[in-house]
């Protein structure tokens, strides 16, 4: 025979509350991980926007915005995200190494704005984009076991 366990409503509410809290905590943790990956992906967009602004500035194209200010904003956004990514990757040497490569390529790219020919700036932009792509892949690989657990 089966025993039927009767729980009062307060016990059920407690169990339900605990399970929901655990589920929400796991979901929020996964959202934070996805935010990290998304911010790394946005670095590529910032780099592309910066390249567009470089061309506008270099060729004095009519533009409704403030090019110099937008360039500085892009640089600041990129740098802030790089710091955030480095802090998130403290336990993974491969991700840290990728971030360092991105930072090196980024610094060469930014420094090239006033000193190099357009072809060289475009080439350095390509290097930053390639290194950012590698970093995003490293982050996805690093966090993928964590993301898969969220589904279970």
Overview of this protein structure:
This protein has a single domain (9-151), classed as de novo design (two linked rop proteins), CATH 1.20.1440. The protein is built from four helices and no strands. It has helices spanning 9-58, 67-88, 93-112, 118-151. With 152 residues, the chain is an all-alpha fold.
Quick overview:
This protein has 152 residues and is an all-alpha fold. It is 83% helix and 0% strand. Helix 1 (9-58) runs antiparallel to helix 4 and helix 3 runs antiparallel to helix 4.
Q: Give the C-level CATH assignment.
A: Mainly Alpha
Strand content: under 5%
Mean pLDDT: 83
Radius of gyration based on Cα positions: 23 Å
CATH fold topology: de novo design (two linked rop proteins)
If helices are DSSP runs of H or I spanning 4 or more residues, what is the number of helices? 4
How many independent structural domains?
A: 1
Please state the structural category: mainly alpha
Q: Main β-sheet: number of strands, strand sense, barrel status?
A: none
CATH architecture classification: Up-down Bundle
Secondary-structure element pattern, one letter each: HHHH
**Roughly what percent helix?**
over 70%
Shape: elongated
Low-confidence stretches: none
Distance N terminus to C terminus?
32 Å
Question: What is the fold's blueprint, element by element?
Answer:
Layout: H1 9-58, H2 67-88, H3 93-112, H4 118-151
Key features of this structure:
single chain; mainly alpha; de novo design (two linked rop proteins)
